[in-house]
Amino acid sequence: MIAARFNPLDIECLVRTAVELWEDVDPSDLSEHQQDTLNRARELWLAEHADQEPPHPEVVTFISPRPAGQAWVLRRWGRHENKMTLHVDEDSALADLAGYVRGVWDNLVGKEGIPDQPPTDDRAAVQLYYGAERTSRPDEGYNLYAEDIARRGRTRIVPLDYRFPDEDACEQANRGATFHPQTDDNDLPCGEVDGVLVFAYLDHDAGAVRVSVHLESAEDRLVRPDGTVPLRVDVEDCVVLDDSAEGAPKRNLLTKLLYAADDLQEQAIREAALAAGILWRCPTCQWDNPGETTCCQGPGLCRVPKPKRSS
């Protein structure tokens, strides 16, 4: 049965693709994932009609999109200004507001119950300046509230036997790279390759050249099973960041996958981990050991050396 060879998201992709093709959509306009899923379905269909054993489906992991973020919006107004700023949390917003309050504390000095110096506690300083009901300064005020940051995302389907794209695929992606220049005040110059966005621009406020890398839109083939994208950053001849050395999923991720799996899923995950070299099975006691160990770590007395790879 062909459907048994696909995960639920692939089946949904096939249904959506069929609807799009029924609406006379050009097949070349389909996404890379849609085309890949269609090709797999075609191969399975041809194998089934030729009485051949279809290829075993690859073992994959599902990576959910990151949850929406949150920012704290501070709006402060007075007779001569109306200012709005964004902050990572409420405490930093209050610290910013308290900094303003301390700078104009002389407006309160001499009034009943007001100390000569503002409190060191940010929240106390703000409350004392504006009043508990924010009515002590009729010409001034502020609003502080949390706002969700919408995040576009999708569930990724990543094989546990991760491999970075081969040389030909990398060259093709590099030749297809695009540059997006700044066109107005709401965007920045950006280079794009295989969905990875690299912003490089002059930041007047910071007084520096800024480089920002965004990986959320990277193609699935670049994403490792732990949800990360291997990244190496060079400035001149100095490597300032290198996360490209380990292509396989981290040990703690494999442990979490095995812990959450049922018996059938666990067997498939272990077989995939063994095939990828993340685990190796002791030929004597059949214990599954981490790939980096050189001798069996089984609970018994077995300390058989790790078998050498056959050529």
Kindly describe this structure.
It is built from 7 helices and 13 strands. It is of the alpha+beta class and 311 residues long. The strands form 5 sheets. Strands 6-7-8-9 form a 4-stranded antiparallel β-sheet, with no helix packed on it. The radius of gyration is 29 Å and the shape is elongated. The two termini are 36 Å apart. The model has no long low-confidence stretch (mean pLDDT 79).
Provide a concise account of the structure shown:
The protein has helices at 8-22, 32-49, 90-103, 122-130, 167-175, 251-260, 263-276; strands at 60-63, 69-77, 82-87, 141-149, 156-159, 178-180, 190-193, 196-203, 208-214, 232-235, 238-242, 279-281, 288-290.
Sum up the structure in keywords.
311 residues; alpha+beta; 29% helix; 4-stranded antiparallel beta sheet; 13 strands; single chain; 3-stranded antiparallel beta sheet; 7 helices
Strand order of the largest sheet: 6-7-8-9
Give the radius of gyration: 29 Å
Helix content: 25-40%
Low-confidence stretches: none
Summarize model confidence as the mean pLDDT.
79
Give me the secondary-structure category. alpha+beta
Number of strand segments: 13
Task: List the helices and strands in order.
Answer: HHEEEHHEEHEEEEEEHHEE
Dominant shape: elongated
Number of helices: 7
Subunit arrangement of the protein: single chain
How are the secondary structure elements laid out?
Blueprint: H1 8-22, H2 32-49, E1 60-63, E2 69-77, E3 82-87, H3 90-103, H4 122-130, E4 141-149, E5 156-159, H5 167-175, E6 178-180, E7 190-193, E8 196-203, E9 208-214, E10 232-235, E11 238-242, H6 251-260, H7 263-276, E12 279-281, E13 288-290
Antiparallel strand pairs: 1-5, 2-3, 2-4, 6-7, 7-8, 8-9, 10-11, 12-13
